[in-house]
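Board work, copied verbatim: FAD dependent oxidoreductase domain-containing protein
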Amino acid sequence: MTKKVLVLGAGVSGLTSGICLLRNGFKDVIIAARHLPGDISSEYTSPWAGASIITAASPDDYRLHEIDLDTKKEFARICDNIPDAHVSRTDSVQYVRQPEATDEEVYWVKKLYDNVRVIPKQNLKPEMSHGYTFTSYVANVPKYLRWLLKTYRSLGGRIERRTFNSIQEAIESYPDVDSVVNCTGYGSHDLKDVKDDALFTLRGQTVLVRAPHIKTQYYDDSATCWTYIIPRDDGTVICGGTVDPDNKATAPDEAITKDILKRVYEMCPDITHGKGPDAFDIVSYNVGFRPARRGGIRIEKEIKHRSNGQKVTVCHNYGHGSHGYQSSWGCSQRVVKLLKDERLSKL
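↓ predict structure ↓
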């Protein structure tokens, strides 16, 4: 058993990994990160998320299906037992704009979600190929992150604000650490001894509105545009959104905001009680950058050595893109499995 673990990164992946390690026999865990919960920065992705617990996997991405299924099971447990986590069970509607649903897609949708129903064709707009209603979960992000941090600390985990240019620098700075878990997200593009060129950012712009009467979440997916409504347990609703690999602007774009609210209103006019897209009760405008990766999430183990020759195991857990919360528990469980089993190199 590894004696001491250093987790790099304090977003949802880093915090969840820290909790899973402490719950599974790792007694000494420390998180070191540039940004900590409570920070507001365009470089710190987790606070900007909608955190609707639905899968982002394609129908044939069996690996991500299993990761997301394990995550959903944990969110169900949290929802039923830990009110302080602010995870709520939510009725959901998902519209899809792509070729007709395959039997394989329907199989996975029914496995991943509860109370699944296929939406009848006559209830769909002409441009929609199919859709589903089901029950899923939503995390109130600011409160959920605080709960993760509180839980991590209650288990004995420590957290420090530190910045490193490489994993090697981190392991030299913590000479008693046996393993490192790399949850730096897009930071792994810049770490000198990782430099993962498969990473790229997907800009997401959203609007937080006040609409306590909205209890159902909605999704309208296409290849280039995501429209979604994600209600939180405090009466606010995340309205989105965008999926933009080219736009690097950190400030909200007024034209994009207007387009988002127009699309959201068209999908659910009741959100402003039918008063039109200019009648939203706006709380804030938000921009975040999702750390996406060609080839999917990297959950992989390698061996590094300190300058004195000591062996250190490094386990990577990054590249979650738009589904960091949706895959958080499943990925962290696999990190634990990799660190416990010397025969495994990746999952």
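The chain has one domain: 4-340.
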